[in-house]
Amino acid sequence: MPHPRPPYLQREETRYRKTVWYVRKERHGPRIRLKAEYGSEEFWQQYQDALSGLVRQRAKASAGSLAWLVERYRETSAWTDLSLATRRQRENILRHVLEKAGNQQASKITRGHIVEGRDRRKATPTQARHFIDTMRSVFEWAAEAQLIKADPTAGVKYPKQPKTDGFTAWTEDHVAAYESRWPIGTRERVWLGVAAGVPGSAHGLRKLAAIRLALAGATIPQLNAIFGWTGSEMAWLIVLSLLVTGCRSCEPNAQ
Questions:
Q1: How many whole angstroms separate alpha carbon 188 and alpha carbon 10?
Q2: What is the pLDDT along the chain (255 residues), one digit of tens a residue?
Q3: Domain count of the chain?
Q4: Is residue 199 classed as helix, strand or coil in its secondary structure?
Q5: pTM
Q6: Are residues 97 and 125 in the same domain?
Q7: Last residue of a domain, one of 97, 127, 161
């Protein structure tokens, strides 16, 4: 028996016998095409983004506009080589930027505009950093491709980050309480099973996973490889957290 098709997903075959997939949430509403290979991880990510409204059918952008520049950027390896999580995060930022300034000529975007966008997000410094990173990736590519004369993000500084102790690591008691509340088979329990490898609200659980591996004897290079860290700063923070809590014999090998 064939599996039922997910909601709002539509299949169509072109006159060239090519199969294309769309998401249409309303009977006569716009269709959002899914360009990734059917069944791939990226395909289902695009499907979820279309359902949540992160991807919308775009009107044709006028040549030279910021929206046009972003469309060209999305066609390059500078964009496609980014991870799915990074693209999703930046897609959300670009959507808000284009809603406000998509019709403006890209060549007229100045450093002042970038600073203004950063300062509008000063209440959330992390979001301000993500905004700068997103715009910088677009304009650095555009300057290299000679589509603009100067990169307006050049020299724009990140906002100062408040000093914190980072995300609080979950304890074994936290995990036990969670497992007691959400038994095997629930959606929330599935989240617990995979969250240790993703960013976002799972940082505390991710930190616990790193501590568990350190206790099991993982080396700093191994921790870096598993969690995608660079350098040794994050791995040594895990080591220090173990030392502070009195687990002096649990320091991972620093080879």
A1: 29
A2: 556 778 888 888 888 888 999 888 877 777 888 888 888 878 888 888 787 766 554 556 788 999 999 989 988 889 888 887 888 889 889 988 988 899 999 999 999 999 999 999 988 888 999 999 999 999 999 999 999 999 999 999 998 876 665 556 566 677 677 677 767 766 565 556 557 444 444 555 566 667 767 777 777 777 777 666 666 666 666 666 655 555 443 444 444
A3: 3
A4: coil
A5: 0.50
A6: yes
A7: 161
